[in-house]
Design a protein that fits this description.
30% helix, 10 helices, alpha+beta
C-alpha cells in the first residue's frame, strides 16, 4: 500500500442548530412516538427570515455508539430522506399559484358539490357535506379537497406544473446535508386526465419534509425562496447567507398567511391549537400512504406546517408523523406537537408577544 496523500484533519464546523430548541424538539417527538407508535416522525424548525435550521430531529432515535442491529432505514435522516405524499399541506401552493395567476382572490367563492369527478377520480372531502358555497379562504381553512381540485382545474395542468417547479419541488433544496432526496414529481408530459384531480390536494407526487419547509419559508418570508441553511461557519470562514429568489409577490404571500390563520381559528382543521400571546398560521395534512399502485385503507401520514407570528413570521416548524396508530389526522397528531414546539421556542428566541 502506498500513501499518495497524507490524511489531514478537516475544519471545525459550526451548525445553525440551536441546542436548546433541538433538545425540546426531540422531547416533543419522543412524546409523539410514545403516544402514537408511528413508523417514524420528523420535525424541522427554521428561522424563515434567513432559512437557518434551528432544529432537525427524528424518531425513533438511534444510539450512535451502538449501531449493531441498525438498518440503513433507521440511519436515514427523515427530514431530507423521506419521500412522502404531502396531502393537504400542499394546498397552500395550489392557492398561491391561483392568486399569482390572478384567477382568484381570497374572497372568490365557488359552489362546491359533495363530490367532484375528474376523469376516473371521484374527489370527496374528509367529512360528508351537501353542496356548499365556499370562499378560497374557507377552502384552505376547512381543507376542502373538492375546493382545492376546483382551484387546480382553474389553473390547468400547464400552469400548475410551472408553479410546482417554481416552488422547488422535484429537485434538491440545497441544504448542506448529504444524500438529500428530490421527491417524485410528474413532468407535464406525464400528466394523465386525472392528474389535476390529484396534485392540487397533495396526492400523486412525493416531496421531502425539507422541500415543504423551504416552500413554506417562501410564504413566510414575503415570497423569497432560499436554500435551508444548516452550516453557519467552516473553520474561521462564515457561510454567506444565500441570496434566494422571488417565487411569489409579497402581497400574495401576505394573503396566503392571512388565510392560513383560519386553519387555527374556529372551524379550521387545527382550531384546538394555540399559543397564548401569538397568532399562528399553518396547514394540516392527512394523507393516505401510497402502496401497491393504490392507497392504503389503514395507513396514513399526519403533518402540520406552521409559522408565528402569523403576519411577521420569525419561527416556522414542520412536524411529519409517518403511520401513526390510533389518531391519524394532522390536526390531532402533528398540530399539537407544533404547538408545543412553538410555545417553547417563541419566548426562547425573544419573539415579542403581539
Amino acid at each position: 500500500t502506498e500513501t499518495v496523500k497524507e490524511a489531514e484533519d478537516g475544519e471545525d464546523i459550526q451548525l445553525t442548530l440551536e441546542p436548546v430548541i433541538q433538545q425540546e424538539t426531540e422531547r416533543v417527538l419522543q412524546e409523539v412516538g410514545e403516544t402514537y407508535s408511528p413508523k417514524g416522525a420528523t420535525a424541522i424548525v427554521v428561522d424563515p427570515r434567513n432559512s437557518q435550521i434551528l432544529a432537525m430531529a427524528h424518531w425513533p432515535p438511534i444510539n450512535p455508539a451502538d449501531l449493531s442491529g441498525v438498518s440503513s432505514e433507521d440511519l436515514m435522516n427523515q427530514a431530507t430522506g423521506l419521500n412522502y405524499e404531502p396531502g393537504s399541506t400542499f394546498k397552500a401552493f395550489t392557492v398561491s399559484a391561483a392568486l399569482e395567476e390572478k384567477l382568484v382572490t381570497p374572497s372568490t367563492e365557488f359552489v362546491l358539490p359533495p363530490e367532484n369527478q375528474v376523469a376516473d377520480r371521484t374527489i370527496k372531502d374528509a367529512e360528508e357535506r351537501g353542496t356548499e358555497t365556499m370562499s378560497v379562504a374557507t377552502i384552505l381553512a376547512r381543507s376542502s379537497n373538492v375546493g382545492a381540485v376546483t382551484i387546480g382545474e382553474e389553473l390547468g395542468a400547464e400552469k400548475f406544473s410551472k408553479w410546482i417547479n417554481r416552488f422547488g419541488f422535484g429537485r434538491q433544496t440545497g441544504v448542506q446535508f448529504p444524500g438529500e432526496q428530490i421527491g417524485i414529481v410528474p413532468k407535464l408530459d406525464e400528466y394523465s386526465g386525472s392528474t389535476i384531480g390529484n396534485l392540487p390536494m397533495g396526492q400523486g407526487l412525493a416531496v421531502t419534509p425539507m422541500q415543504m419547509v423551504a416552500g413554506y419559508t417562501a410564504i413566510a418570508n414575503n415570497g423569497i425562496l432560499r436554500p435551508p441553511q444548516l452550516i453557519e461557519r467552516v473553520g474561521e470562514e462564515e457561510v454567506h447567507e444565500p441570496k434566494g429568489r422571488r417565487v411569489i409577490k409579497a402581497e400574495v404571500a401576505t394573503q396566503v398567511r392571512e388565510m392560513l390563520k383560519g386553519v387555527l381559528e374556529a372551524g379550521g382543521t387545527a382550531s384546538a391549537v394555540s399559543v397564548p400571546g401569538y397568532t399562528l398560521a399553518g396547514k394540516t395534512g392527512t394523507a393516505q400512504v401510497a402502496e401497491n399502485g393504490g392507497y392504503s385503507e389503514t395507513k396514513s401520514l399526519a403533518s402540520f406546517i406552521g409559522m408565528a407570528p402569523a403576519m411577521d413570521p420569525k419561527f416556522l416548524a414542520a412536524v411529519i408523523v409517518d403511520e401513526p396508530e390510533g389518531e391519524i389526522y394532522g390536526g390531532s397528531v402533528a398540530a399539537p406537537a407544533f404547538g408545543e414546539i412553538a410555545a417553547f421556542s417563541l419566548p426562547y428566541l425573544g419573539v415579542p408577544q403581539e
